[in-house]
């Protein structure tokens, strides 16, 4: 992980986080019909509409019901796809105990098998020698 970013003050960290979110917004809204429709209804059509955390607060929350409904209306995966189908390497599914199972897909970059070890390494002190 990036120690410089992890030790920033609250204000500076907030600016870094907002900028990273802005950089992600346009590519997602270009290809992901689910979030393009949802955010557009809230008056957010691109990264230029998010200039502050006050703007960020206008983003609507997403519920499991919305995702399930979208998948039922647009089987099998719904419209919440940011990348072409061939980019996905793994499929996951909830148990469906509260209704229909929810499906989601991982790319090589978003896969838990890649991200989980990165989080563990960030939590472990690798600077202290072990005996």
Report on the architecture of this protein.
The protein is mainly alpha-helical. The protein folds into two domains: 1-59, no CATH class; 62-131, no CATH class. The chain contains six helices and two strands. It has a two-stranded antiparallel ribbon. The longest helix has 22 residues, at 10-31. It is globular. Mean pLDDT is 84; it is low at 114-121.
List the main descriptive attributes of the protein structure presented here.
2 strands, two-stranded antiparallel ribbon, 131 residues, mainly alpha, 47% helix, 6 helices, 2 domains
N-to-C SSE series?
HHHHHEEH
| Number of DSSP helical runs | 6
Largest sheet: 2 strands, antiparallel
Number of strands: 2
Class based on secondary structure composition and strand pairing: mainly alpha
Distance between the termini: 24 Å
Q: What is the helix content?
A: 40-55%
Rg, please? 18 Å
Produce a short descriptive summary.
The chain has 131 residues and is mainly alpha-helical.
Task: Give the topology, please.
Layout: H1 3-6, H2 10-31, H3 33-41, H4 53-56, H5 64-73, E1 88-93, E2 103-107, H6 112-123
Antiparallel strand pairs: 1-2
């Amino acid at each position: 992980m990036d120690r410089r970013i992890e030790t920033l003050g609250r204000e500076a960290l907030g600016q870094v986080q907002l900028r990273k979110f802005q950089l992600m917004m346009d590519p997602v809204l270009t290809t992901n019909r689910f979030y393009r429709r949802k955010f557009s209804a809230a008056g957010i059509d691109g990264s230029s509409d998010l200039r502050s955390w006050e703007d960020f607060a206008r983003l609507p929350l997403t519920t499991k019901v919305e995702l399930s409904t979208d998948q039922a209306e647009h089987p099998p995966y719904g419209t919440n796809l940011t990348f072409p189908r061939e980019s996905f390497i793994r499929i996951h599914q909830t148990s469906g105990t509260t209704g229909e199972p929810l499906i989601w897909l991982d790319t090589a970059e978003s896969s838990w098998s890649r991200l989980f070890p990165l989080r563990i390494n960030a939590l472990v002190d690798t600077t202290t020698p072990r005996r």
